[in-house]
Amino acid sequence: MSNSFDELQKENKEIKRRLEEESRDLHNAKKRISELERKIDSIVEEKLEKNIVIMKVPKQEQEKTEEMVSSIIGHIGVSIATLDFKARHISQAANSPILLELNDRNTRNLILKKQKEAGVLKMENCGCSGKNIVYFNEDLTGGYSYRQGRLRWNANISSRGVRKVPGCDGLTAEFLKEVAQIISESLCYVINEIIETAECPPQFKLVVVRHLYKGGVRTEFSN
């Protein structure tokens, strides 16, 4: 009987020891997973930052512009996206698009409401499949056109059939503020603040490309 009791105690101690070891191993594994996740997030963030490409900006403005872009991407209430054109010369010409991908239904509804109230910007469907996009497209005449539709990656988009926004002779900081105002008050505040604190040139073109399938962000500013 004594032998049996001793064996049971020994087995019980062994099981407890194993459970404690497994608990420590599990704790260490969770800790390691957290460390790896932090490292992965840091690497992804670093890659995104390195993938922000600023073009046609004076060298002395590069750092300020990068900060401005990072702030927009970090704080803006909508995702900024564009298309990878089949005809690359289109994106290199004057009609490079500015696309605001709406990820919030309330924001989208607010745009529709304010557009209806303003009676200036009208919704248009470009006839492409994909995600709902609101974008402003500078045409070759120097005016700015606007269209909303469902777009797809690698779509060859022209400005044909797109309504022009009256009174826009160039994409200035003021124009961006007007666009932001249509989207939301908070977004307008963010863009106003960034434009003023970045001390960027008063007139520039903003083209932001978010390649979702590559996990990168490519941003172009030009005077």
Automatic annotation (TrEMBL):
Lineage top rank: taxon: Eukaryota
Coiled-coil stretches: 5-46
Record keywords, A-Z: Coiled coil
UniProt entry tagged with the keyword Coiled coil: yes
Protein name: Uncharacterized protein
